[in-house]
Amino acid sequence: MQVKEVMTTQPQYLKNDVTIREAARTMRNNKTGFEPLTDANKVTGVITDRDIAVRAVAEGKSLDDKASSIASERVLYTYQDEDIESVVQNMTEQKVQRLLVLNNSENKDLVGIITLGDIANHCKDPQLAQKIVNASRTYN
C-alpha cells in the first residue's frame, strides 16, 4: 500500500503571517490539530495544537503574535508513492503522528497529509497494526 492510497488530499494550509489566534480558530473550524504554514507556494513550517499549548500559552505569548514564531520549522514529509510500512517506521523514528505528503522529489508540491489514523483506517495487516500502535506511543 502506498501513501497516496490513504492520505488526506487537498490539505488546508495557512499563510506564514497568520496569528496564533487565527491558527487556533482554523484548527477548531477544520477540526484539525495540524496546519502547514506557507510563504507563497513554499511550506515554511507547521503548527500544531500542541505548539499552541506548549510554545504559546505556557510561555505567555500573545495570541496576536505570528504563528510562525511558535511553529516547527523542521518540516517532516514523505512522498505520495512511498510505501506505508516505511512511513510508519519514519513516523516512529521521528516521534510524530503526521507527515506532509509531497508529490515527488523534483516538484515537491504539497498534495496531502498522512496521519497514523489515516493508515489505521485502512490497515488490514495485524503486524502493521502493531507498528501503528507502537508509533502512536512515541510521538512528541
From TrEMBL:
Q: Does the keyword Repeat apply?
A: yes
Listed PROSITE patterns: CBS
InterPro entries in the cross-refs: CBS_dom (IPR000644), CBS_dom_sf (IPR046342), CBS_domain-containing (IPR051462)
The residue ranges of the CBS domain are 7-63, 71-130
**Which UniProt keywords are present, listed alphabetically?**
CBS domain, Repeat
PANTHER family (alphabetical):
CBS DOMAIN-CONTAINING PROTEIN CBSX2, CHLOROPLASTIC, CBS DOMAIN-CONTAINING PROTEIN YHCV
What's the protein name?
A: CBS domain-containing protein
